[in-house]
TrEMBL record:
This is AKA14 protein. GO terms for cellular component: cAMP-dependent protein kinase complex. Pfam families: AKAP28. InterPro entries: AKAP, AKAP_28. One of its GO terms (molecular function) is protein kinase A regulatory subunit binding. It comes from Turnix velox (Little buttonquail).
């Protein structure tokens, strides 16, 4: 059985603003199957001017605070890039991809489903490292 890839209709280059991009990332994240105990906050980091496109970088920081430990020992970040082509028509949807902290693999929303395990693995590896230091 093939799983259904969850995505959202992304805005066009014409309709893009930094704020709207952040709203769309939040909307996309809401499609992820993560436990309700995970909390996150998103922020715009910067704009990059490239020869053939403009890139807008965002970070979504995840943690799992508890009543016993309201300040989490570690967090996991997911970095999003929204790219607007200077060559393609601005009536086309923006290009979106994301990477996880400490990895190089580029994920595209239309090609993969997010796994909660990815966040757990990042946090677990950070805690192991802190305990060793």
């Amino acid at each position: 059985t093939k799983s259904v890839i969850k995505n959202i209709p992304w805005i066009t280059g014409n309709d893009f603003t930094v704020e709207r991009g952040q709203e769309q990332i939040e909307e996309y994240i809401s499609t992820w199957d993560v436990h309700s105990s995970w909390l996150h906050c998103s922020e715009f980091l910067r704009e990059e001017e490239l020869k053939y496109s403009k890139r807008y970088l965002y970070r979504v920081c995840w943690s799992m605070p508890t009543c016993r430990k309201p300040i989490p020992r570690a967090t996991a970040s997911v970095y999003f890039v929204i790219e607007i082509s200077k060559i393609k028509p601005t009536t086309l949807p923006v290009e979106v991809f994301f990477t996880l902290e400490s990895t190089r693999l580029i994920h595209r929303p239309e090609q993969c489903n997010f796994r909660e395990k990815w966040l757990k693995d990042i946090i677990e590896s950070k805690i192991i490292l802190m305990e060793r230091l």
